[in-house]
């Protein structure tokens, strides 16, 4: 029968670890006797008793490690560690006692001068108890190390999964912006074509410039708030081509700092929402205000809801909230009170990588 190289390597590795562990246990006992009695009995290490003790250690480790591997194969779920231990502890006691019995029988009966009946009479319970306790301590120690390693690996995998899910979700959210912007822009253009073809031409020219900005920024996590405000002003100028004096805009960018950032196209989405959900006419003007308060950039508008409104895609505000949630613990502030709707966008600083 041909021996598999992998099995042979595993056997040699287990044998080597058994020898190292047995030697380590022997050194611990030597240190104990040295501290307690002040000397060491060197002759003991040359005796058969020492040799048998080394065999106990090597075989005990190999048997218990194989027992643990077998239990793991039958109970593969790391969350069922109590079940594993309930199998390992009695199993370890059984295989250790049998191992001690077989080794003693091998040396005292087969290679010794005792008969089997004499061998049975000379067995001491203390030998079995001590060897079993050592095997259990070593086995449980390896179990503790294994559980700790498995726990850390599980944490790493969990974090990788969270990061992967967040990245996928973020990409999905960003990909929604492009068609959402185009859909609403085409709606505006359709209205201008009917009302004023000349304005529609101007709108189309400006739209191409804005769309270039959208394509450049949509794949970024954050953009400077000052840059996003300039884009919002261009976008609002386009809206004025359609709504003229019916749309009143106030932007205060005097307190915006260079290191303050927001998610790209967030202002445009909030402005679109305000236009979509409210009446905009010369009789009922829509007032949009963008101003910084503390560490937030607020976009507010007076509430004058449309009586008939098509089905909402649900992309605008929820998109902004979800994208901020993936980047920071800072919450998007939403206020709907006193006839005014207000959304506060956290201003974030990009941390430099060391």
List keywords for this structure.
Histidine kinase, Sig_transdc_His_kin_internal, kinase, 2 domains, transmembrane, Heat Shock Protein 90, 9 helices, 354 residues, transmembrane helix
What is the strand and helix layout of this fold?
Blueprint: H1 5-37, H2 48-74, H3 81-110, H4 116-121, H5 125-195, H6 197-217, E1 223-224, H7 225-243, E2 247-252, E3 261-262, H8 266-277, E4 286-293, E5 296-302, H9 316-327, E6 333-337, E7 340-346
Parallel strand pairs: 2-4
Antiparallel strand pairs: 1-3, 4-5, 5-7, 6-7
Find the count of extended strands (DSSP E, 2+ residues): 7
Shape verdict: rod-shaped
Determine the mean pLDDT: 78
What is the CATH architecture term of the largest domain? 2-Layer Sandwich
Describe this structure in words.
It comes from Sphingobacterium spiritivorum ATCC 33861. It holds the Pfam family His_kinase. Keywords: Kinase, Membrane, Transferase, Transmembrane, Transmembrane helix. It contains 9 helices and 7 strands. Strand 4 and strand 5 form a beta hairpin. The protein is rod-shaped, with a radius of gyration of 38 Å. With 354 residues, the protein is of the alpha+beta class. Helix 3 runs antiparallel to helix 5 and helix 5 runs antiparallel to helix 6 (197-217). It has 2 domains: 5-173, no CATH class; 179-349, Heat Shock Protein 90, CATH 3.30.565.10. The chain has a 5-stranded mixed β-sheet, covered by helices on one side. A two-stranded antiparallel sheet has the order 1-3. 19% of the residues are buried. The model has no long low-confidence stretch (mean pLDDT 78).
């Amino acid at each position: 029968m041909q021996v598999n190289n992998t099995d042979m390597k595993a056997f040699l590795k287990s044998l080597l670890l058994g020898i190292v562990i047995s030697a380590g246990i022997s050194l611990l006992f030597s240190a104990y006797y040295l501290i307690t009695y002040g000397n060491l009995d060197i002759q003991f290490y040359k005796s058969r008793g020492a040799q048998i003790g080394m065999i106990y250690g090597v075989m005990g480790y190999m048997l218990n490690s194989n027992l643990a591997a077998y239990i793991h194969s039958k109970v593969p779920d790391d969350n069922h560690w109590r079940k594993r231990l309930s199998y390992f502890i009695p199993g370890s006691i059984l295989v250790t006692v049998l191992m001690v019995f077989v080794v003693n029988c091998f040396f005292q009966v087969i290679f010794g001068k005792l008969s089997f009946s004499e061998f049975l009479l000379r067995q001491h319970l203390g030998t079995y108890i001590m060897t079993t306790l050592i095997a259990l301590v070593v086995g449980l120690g390896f179990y503790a190390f294994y559980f700790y390693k498995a726990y850390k690996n599980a944490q790493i995998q969990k974090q990788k999964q969270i990061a992967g899910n967040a990245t996928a979700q973020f990409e999905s959210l960003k990909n929604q912006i492009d068609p959402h912007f185009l859909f609403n822009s085409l709606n505006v253009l359709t209205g201008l074509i009917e009302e004023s073809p000349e304005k529609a031409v101007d709108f189309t020219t400006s739209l191409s410039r804005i769309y270039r900005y959208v394509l450049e920024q949509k794949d970024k996590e954050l953009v400077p708030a000052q840059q996003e405000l300039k884009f919002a002003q261009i976008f609002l100028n386009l809206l004025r081509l359609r709504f003229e004096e019916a749309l009143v805009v106030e932007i205060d960018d005097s307190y915006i700092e260079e290191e303050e950032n927001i998610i790209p196209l967030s202002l445009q989405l909030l402005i679109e929402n305000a236009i979509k959900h409210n009446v905009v006419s010369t009789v009922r003007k829509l007032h949009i205000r963008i101003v910084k308060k503390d560490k937030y950039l607020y976009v507010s508008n007076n509430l004058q809801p449309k009586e008939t409104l098509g089905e909402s895609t649900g992309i605008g505000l929820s998109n902004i909230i979800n994208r901020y949630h993936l980047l920071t613990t800072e919450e998007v502030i939403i206020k709907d009170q006193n006839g005014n709707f207000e959304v506060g966008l956290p201003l974030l600083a990009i941390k430099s990588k060391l």
